[in-house]
Amino acid sequence: MYPRLEINISKLKHNVDTLSQICKSHNIDMIMVTKSYCAIPEVVEKISGDKVDYLADSRVENIKNLQNINIPKVLLRIPMLSEIADVVKYVDVSFNSELKTIYKLNEESKKQNKVHKIVLMFDLGDLREGYFKEEELFSAVEEVLKLENIKLFGIATNLTCYGAIIPSEKNLGRLASLAKAIENKYNITLEFVSGGNSSSIDLLQNLKMPKGITNLRLGEAVILGRETAYGKVIENTYQDTFKMICEVVEIKEKPSLPIGEIGMDAFGNVPKYEDKGILKRAIVAIGKQDIDIEGIVPIDSDIEILGASSDHMILNVSDCKQSYEVGDKVEFLVEYGGLLTSCTSKYVHKELVYSEFTQKQEAY
């Protein structure tokens, strides 16, 4: 059925093994982030194996589906008060930055007769979540240590996701120093000092990761074989682990400029068009309800994506060597944004595939 997202288990497993080897060679635990493909249980189970130390996702709904996999589960997004019961029930470690939420986690943990592990977030300048002042962090630590059903498991930071701040020896060195200061002041051991996500791989491979960072949270590095600070391909990884296949439903020659007064499109935008004369256009049965069209790249390099509405994507196939017809299939490589949206859509069919290893792709 189409549109179909092919998930190449063989290549994903290869990427996991490569990233795990990189991390282990630097005494870093690997957290595999599963949110980009909605933590499809069959995928997670087949690619994680014994190479992954933690599984992490931002949705409790996804983590619920991974309970049969015997790897500790981490909730990346700060818990909502409305989901506290499920967090305690299904999650081993949650990231936190609000004492009100932590108090509720403690209350619920008492009800469930559990001790819930938390990691306190510290903002190193990316300006997303976390305590921003050191005195606030230490004050939070003191409060957390008073709670009977909460264990302070560690501290963490997030970089590049909002402010695009690149991990460095200086900012991650500050995180490591804070962890050490907390351990010394309160005579405790922090098992978890998380130095960010796939954007920290470049620092690690250049032997600049500060001592004291114990783990990295890897999503895009696994699924697309790229570090996210500079977008560089990680050696010995595949970038074509996901492939979108769509079906052609119309082939027509039409002007490149719409005819008449241009107003807003279906999404409230006023589009601009370039006059390229008459084009041979293919419509494929996928749209913005299913995928971020800026997050896919046609494998046939002669195809140009002209745009999309909710349900249709329009392609310029005028210069293609292949003569596309109704019913033909068009294949796309999938970027991070395209993967997030297509996996969330129930209208995109997912299929696990296995293939022999071919030559690794370059960044596209």
TrEMBL record:
Database matches in InterPro entries: Ala_racemase, Ala_racemase_N, PLP-binding_barrel
GO molecular function: ornithine racemase activity
Ranges where the Alanine racemase N-terminal domain occurs: 7-221
Domain of life: Bacteria
Keyword field: Isomerase, Pyridoxal phosphate
Isomerase listed as a keyword: yes
Enzyme Commission number(s) of this protein: 5.1.1.12
Gene3D superfamilies associated with the record: Alanine racemase (3.20.20.10)
UniProt cofactor(s): pyridoxal 5'-phosphate
Alphabetical list of SUPFAM superfamilies matching this protein: PLP-binding barrel
Enzyme class: isomerase
Protein name as catalogued: Ornithine racemase Orr
Source organism: Romboutsia sedimentorum
Organism taxonomic ancestry: Bacteria, Bacillati, Bacillota, Clostridia, Peptostreptococcales
Gene it is expressed from: orr
